């Protein structure tokens, strides 16, 4: 079998069989296929797509390229959540604590941010001492004892995906539905979870810019999950503006803790309760969505969710004082307001550009080895549909540099004030 024949076959729109996909994945892992041939096949897949059978086969071959985490020693139905990524998306942090407080084990394997999207692990590392890398044995013990753990993936989970993903990033094939679906699901299946709720973002700050494409991706993810016996639901949520009010690693930890204290922005709360309710139903702690939602609300009012988050931080060696004192985390030297030049209603906040602005401050990565400044970021005081008066601050820039003119200009160019605007909906569709 030759790689060039596989490239030719897919380039011409013909379905690849299991043996050809296995040959490709083996060559990726064993380093016997050069980057230029892998890239050629990725581009062919980007343009020609893949059938359901091909997507399922690619996912399973990638999953089988490494280790499979065995969670059977943890009692109960293990439920995880995955997001396709967005700006201000700190959902995993309060969500894991709330769901765990209902008695459902939450073994969460998360990633880092790249470009305009933030990573859960980066946010957690803003907490002094927090360890995202722990042994498999410690991970299993922690989920059994504390009900949750949030760690980074080991090198042995779906190793084929790591090389393929790095090439997708530099060959502009990131937003390919078959490649996104196989990347996400190979890692989630390998992580051994019983049930999965997927947050598929749609809009300007998402990989999928249109609702139709987001639905297509959600359907592909759910189909793959169900094909291997995993309980799976996808929620399509808005990413036309940042989620919540705070963007930046330490700032998003603050907002997550605020939510667990019964505060926090309404859009973040709505999404957390929606995703969490489906997790609770899949975990069989409630019979329906409404019952699950009430259970989750109770974890906040009773303080149980906040205590679960405290237990998570303590178990992974973080400084638990952060729960009461946010200044335990790195603090920016300057707080610089962006002032509205006219009165009206906020009609547009381009999520991806706000994410890029935060990255320019040092809060995100352009390359995987970039060092983060955990203190910096942006706090929105107004969202789409909110009234603003001339001279009021639209947002505050948290920076360690006094001169942020370039960041201010980028934000000014991507926030629009009009005479009228409707608040966008948060949840568009549920895919089961």
From TrEMBL:
It is an enzyme of class 2 (transferase). One of its GO terms (cellular component) is cytosol. Its cofactor is K(+). Keywords: Glycosyltransferase, Transferase. The keyword Nucleotide-binding does not apply. InterPro entries: Glycosyl_Trfase_fam3, Glycosyl_Trfase_fam3_N_dom, Glycosyl_Trfase_fam3_N_dom_sf, Nuc_phospho_transferase, PYNP-like_C_sf, PYNP_C, Pyrmidine_PPas_bac/euk, Pyrmidine_PPase_CS. Its EC number is 2.4.2.2. GO terms for biological process: pyrimidine nucleobase metabolic process; pyrimidine nucleoside metabolic process. It catalyses: thymidine + phosphate = 2-deoxy-alpha-D-ribose 1-phosphate + thymine; 2'-deoxyuridine + phosphate = 2-deoxy-alpha-D-ribose 1-phosphate + uracil; uridine + phosphate = alpha-D-ribose 1-phosphate + uracil. Residues 345-418 form the Pyrimidine nucleoside phosphorylase C-terminal domain. One of its GO terms (molecular function) is 1,4-alpha-oligoglucan phosphorylase activity. Belongs to the thymidine/pyrimidine-nucleoside phosphorylase family. Catalyzes phosphorolysis of the pyrimidine nucleosides uridine, thymidine and 2'-deoxyuridine with the formation of the corresponding pyrimidine base and ribose-1-phosphate. Homodimer. NCBIfam families: PRK05820.1, PRK06078.1, Y_phosphoryl. This is Pyrimidine-nucleoside phosphorylase. It comes from Bombilactobacillus bombi.
């Amino acid at each position: 079998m030759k790689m060039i024949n596989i490239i030719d076959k897919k380039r011409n729109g013909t379905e690849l069989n299991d043996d050809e996909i296995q040959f490709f994945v083996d060559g990726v892992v064993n380093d016997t296929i050069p980057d230029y041939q892998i890239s050629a096949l990725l581009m062919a897949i980007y343009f020609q797509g893949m059938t359901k059978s091909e997507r399922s086969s690619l996912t399973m071959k990638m999953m089988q390229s490494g280790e499979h985490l065995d969670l059977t020693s943890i009692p109960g139905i293990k439920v995880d959540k995955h997001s396709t990524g967005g700006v201000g998306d700190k959902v995993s942090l309060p969500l894991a604590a709330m769901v765990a407080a209902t008695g459902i084990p939450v073994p969460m394997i998360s990633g880092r941010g790249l470009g305009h999207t933030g990573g859960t692990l980066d946010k957690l590392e803003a907490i002094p001492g927090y360890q995202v890398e722990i042994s498999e044995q410690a991970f299993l013990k922690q989920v059994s004892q504390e009900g949750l753990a949030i760690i980074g993936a080991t090198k042995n989970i779906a190793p084929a995906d790591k090389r393929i993903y790095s090439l997708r990033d530099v060959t502009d094939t990131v937003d390919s539905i078959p490649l996104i679906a196989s990347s996400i699901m190979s890692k989630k299946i390998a992580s051994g979870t019983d049930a999965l709720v997927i947050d598929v973002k749609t809009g300007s700050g998402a990989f999928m810019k249109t609702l139709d494409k987001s639905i297509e991706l959600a359907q592909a993810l759910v189909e793959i999950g169900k094909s291997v016996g995993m309980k799976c639901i996808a929620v399509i949520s808005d990413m036309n503006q940042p989620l919540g009010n705070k963007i930046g690693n330490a700032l998003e930890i603050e907002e997550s803790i605020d939510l667990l204290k019964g505060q926090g922005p309404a859009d973040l709360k709505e999404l957390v309760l929606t995703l969490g309710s489906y997790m609770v139903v899949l975990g069989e702690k409630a019979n329906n969505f409404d019952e699950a939602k009430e259970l989750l609300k109770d974890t906040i009012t009773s303080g149980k969710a906040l205590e679960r988050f405290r237990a998570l931080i303590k178990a992974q060696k973080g400084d638990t004082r952060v729960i009461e004192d946010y200044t335990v985390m790195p603090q920016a030297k300057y707080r610089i307001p962006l002032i509205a030049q006219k009165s009206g209603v906020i009609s547009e906040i381009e999520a991806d550009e706000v994410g890029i602005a935060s990255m320019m401050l040092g809060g995100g990565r352009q390359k995987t080895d970039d060092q983060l400044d955990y203190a910096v970021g942006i706090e929105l005081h107004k969202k789409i549909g909110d009234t603003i008066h001339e001279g009021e601050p639209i947002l505050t820039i948290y920076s360690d540099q006094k001169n942020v003119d370039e960041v201010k200009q980028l934000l000014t160019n991507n926030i629009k004030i009009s005479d009228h605007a409707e608040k966008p909906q948060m949840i568009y569709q549920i895919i089961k």
